[in-house]
């Protein structure tokens, strides 16, 4: 393989871009940036809190629909005709 005339090494660039590379472990700012992706700021926690109360509202709505279907009687008798 012929060397690149610009001195740019693609393999070295790919190695440095890999988050598990030796260069990422030597990053002096990695410790200061790590808090953004842990604890309450993790991807799961951010997704979980995107719609607060959605789970409770879904269960309450399903319960109401079940109650209405089984316990509320329809006295209108649509389709019998109005005389």
UniProtKB/TrEMBL annotation:
Entry keyword set: Electron transport, Membrane, Mitochondrion, Mitochondrion inner membrane, Respiratory chain, Transmembrane, Transmembrane helix, Transport, Ubiquinone
Sequence intervals crossing the membrane: 50-72
Secretion signal span: none
Entry GO CC: mitochondrial inner membrane
InterPro entries recorded: NDUFB3
Membrane topology classification: Single-pass membrane protein
Keyword presence, NAD: no
GO terms under biological process: electron transport chain; mitochondrial respiratory chain complex I assembly
Localization (cell): Mitochondrion inner membrane
Pfam families: NDUF_B12 (PF08122)
Main localization category: mitochondrion
Family, per entry: Belongs to the complex I NDUFB3 subunit family.
Function of the protein: Accessory subunit of the mitochondrial membrane respiratory chain NADH dehydrogenase (Complex I), that is believed not to be involved in catalysis. Complex I functions in the transfer of electrons from NADH to the respiratory chain. The immediate electron acceptor for the enzyme is believed to be ubiquinone.
Protein name (record): NADH dehydrogenase [ubiquinone] 1 beta subcomplex subunit 3
Species of origin: Aspergillus mulundensis
